[in-house]
Design a protein that fits this description.
- Among the domains are: 44 residues, no CATH class; 99 residues, no CATH class; 60 residues, no CATH class; 36 residues, no CATH class.
- Helices cover 21% and strands 30% of the residues.
- The chain contains twelve helices and 33 strands.
């Protein structure tokens, strides 16, 4: 595929290429080009995915008590979600006329800061007040991005999981703890990239295993420790020698586990499964997807960072979207451009928190509207004429081709998902016109996480009432009653750090999206992999050699 144009990113200054396929897909959505490279586009889009700390506040409409992860510094009013979708207020009352002498983006941001937003995303939940972006879930606590889950605490992007704690990017996993990228698992702890496995701890890249410990690259195995086969009786006797009821010892086991993974495990050049004519990482059941990551059941996508059942998308973080460009955390959208947190919208551009709208441009908080610009109603003919006028002005100002600026952010960059994947300094974000949260003062009374009882058997019954100060972040947290019961049931030591700090550390394997050139350790064929040099992985293999060695 030939490059059609070499451009210089106006954000980071690095050169990047737009291929003819990029331009074709952009052009189909009437976007001629982009002024930023892929990484800078992703950073901007992910900075609109709030990952702040949950807090209690009140609805600006009714005074009703609500729980949100928007910080106190958020400029727009917050309404309780049920009130926000009701007829108790009218977002059209905030409408304004477009001023051709001023930047459209500036006018859009002014509108965005005035129009109320819902305190949380998600519907059809029961007892999930301390969550955000959760859907059809029950009894979940301090989670983000869940679907069809029950009894999950401190989870991120988990689907159909039950009765588990500290999961990230897991599907159909139950009674498990501290695991990432696990599918169809039961009672699997401290593990990464495991499928169809049960009653095991410290696994890496294992399939269909049972009663295994501290092992990697296993297939259809049982009673293995450090990849050594034991009889059933030998396994359980040997397993007793690994003390996993002590926090200090579990931390040592984690270090030992990852040292073994680095030195001995065979690492496939990517984590893609059931994928064809595609490149990137963490792709599942995808076809014709170029430079995409964390994408499932999708087709004909380019530079998509996260998605599910997305088709013909480019520069998006979207679920169930088709023909969308520059999309952040949208769902069920069709032929949209430059949108954030929108659902069931079509044929629209520059929308923020809109639902069931079509043929709208530069609108915020609208529901079931048509032919609106800046929350002002027009006829079809007036809308089409003014829309073309605005796009022409935006092209002249270099605004048409870039996602919302950092200045339009809902909160500080450091309280968004972007900071997890693209860590930035306060100084640089402020230079880019963005926002940063300094945190402010907080009550720091409590015991240090370093003073939490080492062994689960030493924890008193009323420990859930004890405030704990995370030694790494200074943030305060508690061990919830249901959480303590879970740890006791499975003899898991209490965590010493804040749940968001634990999640950030757990994210380590999910940040491998920068491609590296290397050679297969077996056949020496040149490969493209996603493992940073500092991870010191010794055995990185091409797909064919990996399958020959492992499968």
């Amino acid at each position: 595929m030939a490059d059609i144009e070499i451009k210089k990113c106006r954000e980071c200054g690095n050169e990047f290429s737009l291929t003819d396929e990029d331009v074709k897909l952009l052009g189909a959505l009437r976007v001629d080009t982009t002024y930023e490279c892929t990484l800078c586009n992703w950073k901007r889009i992910l900075s609109f995915f709030v990952f702040g700390r949950f807090r209690k506040t009140t609805s600006a409409l009714s005074g009703k008590s609500i729980i949100t992860n928007f910080p106190e510094s958020t400029q727009f009013p917050l309404y309780e979600r049920g009130e926000w979708v009701s007829d108790a207020w009218d977002p059209m009352e905030y409408g304004t006329e477009y001023e051709s002498t001023r930047s459209f983006i500036a006018q859009f941001i002014e509108l965005e800061k005035r129009v109320p937003h819902p305190h949380q995303s998600g519907t059809k939940n029961t007892n999930c007040d301390w969550c955000d972006d959760v859907w059809n879930c029950k009894n979940c606590y301090l989670c983000r991005s869940l679907l069809d889950c029950e009894g999950v605490s401190y989870g991120y992007r988990t689907f159909a999981c039950k009765n588990s704690i500290d999961l990230a990017f897991c599907f159909k996993t139950e009674e498990s703890y501290d695991s990432v990228y696990c599918f169809n698992c039961y009672r699997v702890n401290y593990s990464f990239n495991v499928r169809d496995s049960i009653e095991s701890d410290f696994l890496y890249d294992c399939r269909n295993v049972k009663n295994c410990f501290m092992s990697w690259n296993l297939r259809n195995a049982q009673y293995c420790i450090l990849n050594t086969q034991y009889t059933k009786e030998e396994y359980f006797e040997k397993r007793k020698t690994f003390d996993t009821e002590s926090f200090e010892n579990v931390e040592k086991l984690k270090d030992l586990f990852w040292k073994n993974i680095s030195a001995h495990a065979v690492h496939r050049e990517n984590y893609n499964t059931k994928t064809s004519d595609s490149n990137g990482n963490f792709l599942s059941e995808c076809k014709n997807c170029e430079d995409c990551f964390f994408l499932d059941k999708s087709e004909n996508c380019r530079h998509v960072f996260r998605g599910f059942e997305t088709k013909d998308g480019i520069y998006t973080v979207a679920t169930l979207g088709e023909k969308c460009v520059f999309s952040s955390v949208d769902g069920y959208v069709y032929e949209t451009a430059f949108t954030s947190h929108c659902s069931h919208c079509r044929y629209s551009a520059f929308l923020d928190y809109c639902e069931e709208c079509e043929y709208c441009f530069g609108c915020v908080g609208l529901r079931k509207k048509k032919y609106c610009i800046l929350n002002t109603q027009y006829t079809k003919e007036e809308y089409e004429k003014k829309r073309e006028e605005i796009i022409l002005h935006m092209k002249e100002r270099g605004e048409w081709g870039s996602f919302f600026p950092y200045s339009a952010g809902y909160c500080g960059y450091n309280l968004t998902l972007a900071q997890w994947y693209f860590p930035e300094t306060k100084e640089h974000i402020l230079e880019l016109g963005g926002i940063w949260e300094d945190g402010g003062s907080q009550d720091v009374e409590g015991i240090s996480g370093n003073d939490v009882p080492d062994r689960i058997g030493e924890v008193p019954d009323d420990f859930y009432a004890q405030p704990i100060i995370c030694p790494k972040s200074g943030w305060k947290f508690n061990i919830a009653p249901h959480e303590l019961e879970f740890y006791r049931r499975y003899q898991i030591p209490l965590p010493h750090n804040h749940f968001d700090v634990r999640m950030m550390e757990r994210f380590r394997p999910l940040t491998s999206f920068r491609s590296n050139k290397g050679r297969c350790v077996f056949c020496e064929k040149e490969i493209t992999h996603f493992y940073p040099d500092e991870w010191e992985y010794k055995k990185i293999a091409c797909v064919e050699c990996y399958q020959n060695q492992i499968m």
